[in-house]
Amino acid sequence: MSLCVEKLLGFVMVLTRISAFFLVIPVFSWKTIPVRIKVGLTVMLAVFFSVITPLAIEPKRISVMEAILLIANEAAYGLALGLVAAVVFSAVRLSGRIIERQMGLAMAEVLDPLTGDRTQPLGSLLEMIFILLFLSANGHHLLLLIISKSYEAFPAGCIPTVPVLTAGVVKAGSAMLIAGLKLAAPILAAFLLLMVVLAILARIVPEMNILFISLPLRVGLGLLMVTIFLPFINGFVTEFADWMGKLLPY
Fold this sequence. Notes:
mainly alpha
């Protein structure tokens, strides 16, 4: 390989991992962020990490086919890192969907201005609040720390095995379900108590239309409980950082 290609190979591998990572992580993957900003930030980070991190390979001994495979491996590793972060990040939206189903708002949909997809209003609201808390606590530094630790553990040209990457993604999925259920558990308990009260009223007053009065009660109780337990979302920011340290494949 020529000298120019040898120097360019290391930068391309670093750029590939960072681009794949930022392609799927929350906040940075939003459609509302201009593409120029995304490209400029990715290239700037790639230049920085390509300077401070050594290569795990000798470019002189790498053929063209091996270079293509190395770049593909870097893309797979970056996608795995970003997918783990995105899956754990979506625990807040999952808890919002659980609450909305209990409130009877499962069919309510709005257009998410950040991603351009259709989503439920309460889940989108909780996710936006969590994102603001996450960024106010310098959560974007955590994303940069993930990239930095990945290069400390696996320099460019050296990535984890497929079972390690798969295990990280699977564990992140289970962590998302656990965290989402934990966030929605107090409100689920309140809805269970409401159902018990409505069942007792149905037995005491048979002529009462329980179905007619249950919907406004469920919506009102859901909004009240979300307002009460909204400050506890801030605690999930710290828990999110802990999950990242345990689940990321590095």
